[in-house]
């Protein structure tokens, strides 16, 4: 009987130990599953927020690209007339036409919506996407400054005015903006599609 009692005690101890180990494993497994489910929903929420701000930047940047692209010819005409005036050649546009061109170029040159959208992307990150957003913002600001400064220049001691904007600069900065937008879209897509 003593052997039977010993066998029963050993069996009960083994069963209890097995139950404790199995229970602990179940608790750890459940904890990991709960954590994974929680982090998974956070990841979905974060990616949704990122997708929205990335989309807003692309909308703002494409709108800015369209508005500035529409006035590039006018900006070129202003520069041509300015260079023609400096060289004593006839200008193509009257004063009122140039005033209209100036207003159109100035209105299109405002990059504030792009800057605001880029700041939102910086908040959502990650850093490589934020850096690409800053590049879009910088390109938009550079193009805006170029368009705003079309008729700025420096005066020589003899009183002649020299434009500070070369004739090809607006188009060059426009192309840089397009490139920055494309790079941002590519980096953002890669980030959103990466798991």
The share of residues in helices is over 70%
The counted number of beta strands is 2
In percent, how much strand structure appears in the residues?
A: under 5%
Q: Estimate the global geometry from the Cα principal axes.
A: rod-shaped
Secondary-structure element pattern, one letter each? HHHHEEH
With helices defined by DSSP (H or I, 4 residues minimum), what is the helix count? 5
Distance linking N and C termini: 63 Å
Radius of gyration based on Cα positions: 33 Å
Quickly give the structural class. mainly alpha
Q: Please list the strands of the largest sheet in the order they lie side by side.
A: 1-2
Give the overall average pLDDT: 81
Profile the largest sheet.
Answer: 2 strands, antiparallel
Low-confidence stretches: none
Descriptive report:
With 195 residues, the chain is mostly helical. Helices cover 82% and strands 3% of the residues. The chain contains five helices and two strands, in the order ααααββα. It has a two-stranded antiparallel ribbon. Strand 1 (153-155) and strand 2 form a beta hairpin. The mean pLDDT is 81.
């Amino acid at each position: 009987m003593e052997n039977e009692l010993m066998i029963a005690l050993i069996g009960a101890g083994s069963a209890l130990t097995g139950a404790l180990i199995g229970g602990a494993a179940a608790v750890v497994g459940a904890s990991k599953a709960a954590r994974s489910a929680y982090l998974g929903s956070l990841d979905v929420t974060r990616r949704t927020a990122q997708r929205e701000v990335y989309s807003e930047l692309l909308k703002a940047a494409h709108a800015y690209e369209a508005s500035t692209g529409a006035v590039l010819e006018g900006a070129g005409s202003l520069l041509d007339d300015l260079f023609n005036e400096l060289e004593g050649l006839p200008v193509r546009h009257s004063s009122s036409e140039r005033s209209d061109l100036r207003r159109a170029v100035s209105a299109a040159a405002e990059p504030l919506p792009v800057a605001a959208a880029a700041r939102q992307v910086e908040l959502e990150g990650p850093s490589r996407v934020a850096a690409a957003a800053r590049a879009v913002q910088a390109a938009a600001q550079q193009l805006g400054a170029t368009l705003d400064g079309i008729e700025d220049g420096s005066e020589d001691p003899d009183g002649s005015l020299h434009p500070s904007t070369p004739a090809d600069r607006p188009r060059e900065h426009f192309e840089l903006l397009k490139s920055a937008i494309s790079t941002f879209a590519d980096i953002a897509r890669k980030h959103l599609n990466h798991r």
